[in-house]
Amino acid sequence: MILKFLKAMWNWAFSGFKTVDSDLEDKRESICLECKFYMARQEKCLECGCYMPLKRKIKNQNCPIGKW
Fold first, then answer.
1. Considering only CA atoms, which of 46, 35, 48 is closest in space to residue 58?
2. Burial of 30 by CB count in 10 Å (0-12 exposed, 13-18 middle, 19+ buried)?
């Protein structure tokens, strides 16, 4: 899991730290809230283990099961 995180951060840095606009972030959040793999209390995805408030903001990230 740590290696996945480091790779994601490397790719984010390489992309110039690009983030999504607030509308897309809100759309991603609404999808997560309905997902069976999302742990709302911890704001974590059980499928990839990521902290979702951060992951949803990063432009080059995606849902591990292809929902966004």
1. 48
2. exposed
pTM: 0.86
Q: Tell me the CA distances in angstroms from 32 to 6, 10, 46, one per residue in order.
A: 22, 24, 11
Please tell me what DSSP assigns to residue 17: S
17-42 pLDDT tens trace: 999 999 999 999 999 999 999 999 99
How distant, in Å, are the alpha carbons of 17, 34, 40 from that of 67?
22, 11, 17
Please report the pLDDT score of residue 68 as a whole number: 97
List the structure tokens of 46: 């059980």
Q: Report the alpha-carbon distance of residue 4 to residue 27 in Å, rounded.
A: 24
- HSE (side-chain half, CA atoms, 13 Å) at 9: 9
